[in-house]
Amino acid sequence: MDRKLDVVALAGILFLLIHTASAYAQNHARADIKNAEGKSIGTASLRETKDGVVITANIKGLPQGLHAFHFHSIGKCEGPAFTSAGPHFNPMNKKHGLKNPAGPHAGDLPDMYVEKNGMGRYEVLADSITLGSGETSIFDADGTAIIIHFTADDNVTDPAGNSGDRIACGVITRAAAKTK
Q1: H or E stretch including 103?
Q2: I need a surface site. Which of 35, 45, 103, 166 has the fewest CB within 10 A?
C-alpha cells in the first residue's frame, strides 16, 4: 500500500514540475541581439506580468547615445540591414509614436541610452503586447523581432520616427523552461 502512495505522490510532483515549467515558458521570452555582422552584442528578456510585459536588455558595442528600440512584425533578422524584420509590430493599425495622438504602434517603445563605453541597459514595461494569445501577441504566425536603430525615435513621425538605420536585431523566442 505504501508503494501506491509513493507512486501517486511522485506522479503529483512530476505533474507540478511539468506544469510549472510550461507556465514559465508561456510567460517568458528572450532574444539574442546581433549586429549587422551577425555578432552577438547582447540579450533581451521578456516577462509577462499582470500589468504588461517587462523588457530587459543588456547590450554592448553600440555607439554612444539614444537609440530607438522597437518590436518589428516579423521574427527574422537577416543582416546587414535587417529589413527582413518588416515594419513595426502594429496589430491595432495605429500611427507611429509614443507622442502621436493617433498612435502608438504596439511595437513603439522608449529609446535606449548607450554609454560612452558602448554598454546599454534597458528596462521598460510594455502594456501594448502580450506573450500569450490574441491580437497583440508577439507570438503570431510569423513571430516578432527586436530592432535597435542608429538614432533616437522622434516619437511622432510615421512610420518609424526618423530613427535611422537598423543596426541590431534579435528574434524573440519563448524561453526554455527553468529547472531547479
Answers
A1: none
A2: 45
**Per residue in 109-155, pLDDT tens?**
999 999 999 999 999 999 999 999 999 999 999 999 999 999 999 99
Peptide bond into 91 cis (omega under 30): no
Q: CA 88 to CA 159: how far, in whole Å?
A: 8
Whether the ω angle into residue 63 lies within 30 degrees of 0, i.e. cis, is no
Please report the domains of the chain, with CATH numbers, ordered by start residue. 28-174 (2.60.40.200)
CA dihedral sign, ordered 63, 41, 44, 134: positive
Contacts of the segment 106-111: beta carbons below 8 A, 24+ positions apart: 106/71, 106/136, 107/70, 107/71, 107/72, 107/73, 107/144, 108/70, 108/153, 108/155, 108/161, 109/55, 109/69, 109/70, 109/71, 110/69, 111/66, 111/67, 111/68, 111/69, 111/152, 111/153
The dihedrals phi and psi of 45, each to the nearest 5 degrees, come to -120, 145
Any idea what the Cα angle at residue 103 is, between residues 113 and 148, rounded to 5°? 30
